[in-house]
Design goal:
single chain
């Protein structure tokens, strides 16, 4: 988990306690960042980790200009239709059958949307989904090519109003080197 910037990074706080991989909180100019990597194998642990992230955000004085991003290792209720079309549940059950230590499905039978729902319920906007909705309405084509995603950028409501673009990088390199698709975000000034 890392954060780089051509602008000075201030108020850096790395949290590892009670986290599998941890998260970073920092400020760059007027923006508040959280960069995270949640547990990849246990849905209960991810739930506890996102609760800790949200509690830390809640404790901050500044309630504006928040960007929460990274590997959430979970799926969104906003993608239910896409997940059903790609048989996400069947693939997750097959993965659990091969590796019984995996606990990514609720009681081994249901997709866990809790982590993403907590972000949405806390008032954050899924930038990728919001931009996909605009682009799909405009062009008839989704910007989210895969049937599941685990990396997200969430925006506080004030920044969601400044969303000017968002895209996922689908190319030969990202197709062969990772199960993640980088996300680029553009905000209006």
């Amino acid at each position: 988990t890392g954060l780089t910037s051509r602008y000075p990074i201030a108020d850096i706080r790395k949290v590892n306690e009670s986290m599998t991989h941890g998260f970073i909180m920092a400020r760059i100019e007027q923006f508040n960042f959280v960069v995270l990597h949640l547990n990849p194998h246990k849905y209960r642990k991810r739930r506890a980790e996102i609760a800790q992230v949200l509690k830390n955000i809640e404790l901050q004085k500044d309630k504006k200009n928040w960007l929460i991003m990274g590997d959430f290792n979970s799926v969104s209720p906003l993608d239910k239709e896409r997940l059903a079309q790609g048989d996400y549940l069947g693939r997750a059950k097959a993965a659990a059958a091969k590796r019984p230590a995996l606990e990514n499905l609720v009681d081994g039978n249901a997709i866990d949307f809790d982590v993403q729902q907590r972000m949405l319920s806390a008032g954050f906007t899924d930038a990728g989904h919001a931009w996909d909705k605009k682009e799909t309405a405009r062009t008839g084509k989704s910007i989210i090519a895969s049937n599941s995603r685990i990396d997200y950028i969430y925006l506080s409501s004030d920044l969601a109003k400044k969303l000017n673009g968002c895209r996922f990088i689908y190319d030969d390199f990202t197709a062969t080197h990772s199960d993640h698709r980088p996300i680029l975000l553009d905000l209006k000034k």
